[in-house]
Amino acid sequence: MLRRLYSTILGVPTGKLAKNIADMTTTELLIKAGYVSQPNAGLTHWLPLGLSTIRNIEEIIRKHHDKAGCQEVSLSVMSHQSLWDKTGRWQNDELFKVGDFCLAATAEEEMTQLVQRTADSYKKLPVIAYQIGRKYRNEKRPRGGLLRGREFVMKDAYSFDVDQSSALRSFEKMNQVYYDIFKELNVPFVKANADSGAIGGDLSYEWHFLSESGEDTLLECDACGVVGNVERVRPHLAGGHLADEAEVSYHLTRENDLCLIYYPKGRTVNFKFLNDEDLVELHTDISSEEAVQTYKRSGDSEFRNIVRIMDVGVGPGTLLPDLEVAYSRSRMTTFEGVPLTEAQAGDVCALCEAGKLKSFKGIEVGHTFYLGKRYSEPLDAGFVDSEGRRQHYEMGCYGIGVSRLVAAIAEVTRDTHGLRWPASVAPIQVDIVVAGSYTGDLGTVEKFCSQLDGLRYRVDATEGHLGEKLARSKRLGTPLQVIIGKQYPKIEIELRGLRRDLGKLESEVQQQ
Ligand code: ATP
Ligand code: MG
Ligand code: MG
Ligand code: MG
């Protein structure tokens, strides 16, 4: 409960207000308003108001996970190379490494190993474990600080089941948890099919806030209403200048992997595949458009690895775009049958074949995956079934960008006056602004406030013009202002937040 005078909140400015709010990026606004500070690109120091905001979001996330029977844990941030070697992810460019350890970018490996230690029988399954903590990814372009950090706060959950149908039930349960969380946050969101063929697919969903500043392009069918992310297949290749003869290295991380390789018209491309050591290559066919490799892992059935080759019609020396390794992609179990052409706005929906696709931008705030045995097999993690046979877990994983949410909520709700938090996450829900015209004593104000139990409020009884104090409160994004002036006990109320989530707050305050 914040019950402080203005000047006592670390980081919150007390002097004259900057005028150019509308021109500021949301990160600049959060910094100027004293929520966070950025020591370096992609890093964040949390100040009291920012910390309170992120904790409010965490509490909502926690409440819904606990209600669904998920168990909270907190794993070490450091993780040993030996585990990541087994799943083929140690070479990922995004990992920060400290000797033989990496700083956790995600926790499939560690969580699977942890659960394996206790959930060794079908009687102990299903298990869904989650944590809320810091993650580390060496993002090439840490953008807007909180939206894309090198260090950021993620909620990551993992489900472990005995078979596929049970795993799909856990997956659906977690999608319901996500729906409930985003509903309570009270910011418009969509659930989009991710990494799916055409606009269909049901193994991975992304949860987006709609925003022009979003990095993802989403397509929605105007007839069946299905939403999908156009980013279905991202090349797993770093850009750079093309040499006379381009040599392409490609790290195979999973079955049926698929990547694009750009090559200059009329030039030869030499393929160099870096594969898991325990994979046995059976044969490779390279045509001008496709390279299909067949592999076998000891004891495993055969699988194919498909590489599409794209002719970009460029010559040696051309600067190719820097193509990020799409981290989330390496969690998918299969890409087989994914068409390479993007669905575009205006096209007929491939799913219902009736509607047209329209496009809009989104900020990815969450992701739910059905994983199958992608991690349990290489880590040899599993349980003994009812007939005494050992089986590998069927898994799912579920992420929410908690620190990204702070900036994403701010981004979609802010206006020209400043931030505009939904009451559910606002660090201060009510500002009690004492006007200069108020002739009573502060004890009376305190008494008034003591009745606002359960609300996060703050009293501003500092010197200064009422208009300026209100403007400050609005800039900080406080949803409701209560003005105590000369007519007290008659009070004035100003609504800053979105009316639909303030009804209860307003009536509670007015009843006092
Ligand atoms: P993006 O496409 O934005 O790089 P991602 O698909 O790589 O995200 P996931 O692996 O799906 O991310 O991680 C789960 C969630 O964590 C994402 O939905 C996103 O909200 C959040 N997240 C991922 N990377 C970052 C980051 N660098 N900074 C802040 N939040 C992040
Ligand atoms: Mg990423
Ligand atoms: Mg993702
Ligand atoms: Mg993504």
UniProtKB/TrEMBL annotation:
<keyword id="KW-0067">ATP-binding</keyword>
<dbReference type="InterPro" id="IPR036621">
    <property type="entry name" value="Anticodon-bd_dom_sf"/>
</dbReference>
<feature type="coiled-coil region">
    <location>
        <begin position="488"/>
        <end position="512"/>
    </location>
</feature>
<dbReference type="GO" id="GO:0004827">
    <property type="term" value="F:proline-tRNA ligase activity"/>
</dbReference>
<dbReference type="InterPro" id="IPR002316">
    <property type="entry name" value="Pro-tRNA-ligase_IIa"/>
</dbReference>
<keyword id="KW-0547">Nucleotide-binding</keyword>
<dbReference type="Pfam" id="PF00587">
    <property type="entry name" value="tRNA-synt_2b"/>
</dbReference>
<dbReference type="InterPro" id="IPR050062">
    <property type="entry name" value="Pro-tRNA_synthetase"/>
</dbReference>
<keyword id="KW-0175">Coiled coil</keyword>
<dbReference type="InterPro" id="IPR002314">
    <property type="entry name" value="aa-tRNA-synt_IIb"/>
</dbReference>
<dbReference type="InterPro" id="IPR045864">
    <property type="entry name" value="aa-tRNA-synth_II/BPL/LPL"/>
</dbReference>
<protein>
    <recommendedName>
        <fullName>proline--tRNA ligase</fullName>
        <ecNumber>6.1.1.15</ecNumber>
    </recommendedName>
</protein>
<comment type="similarity">
    <text>Belongs to the class-II aminoacyl-tRNA synthetase family.</text>
</comment>
<dbReference type="GO" id="GO:0005524">
    <property type="term" value="F:ATP binding"/>
</dbReference>
<dbReference type="GO" id="GO:0006433">
    <property type="term" value="P:prolyl-tRNA aminoacylation"/>
</dbReference>
<keyword id="KW-0436">Ligase</keyword>
<dbReference type="InterPro" id="IPR006195">
    <property type="entry name" value="aa-tRNA-synth_II"/>
</dbReference>
<keyword id="KW-0648">Protein biosynthesis</keyword>
<feature type="domain" description="Aminoacyl-transfer RNA synthetases class-II family profile">
    <location>
        <begin position="50"/>
        <end position="422"/>
    </location>
</feature>
<dbReference type="GO" id="GO:0005739">
    <property type="term" value="C:mitochondrion"/>
</dbReference>
<keyword id="KW-0030">Aminoacyl-tRNA synthetase</keyword>
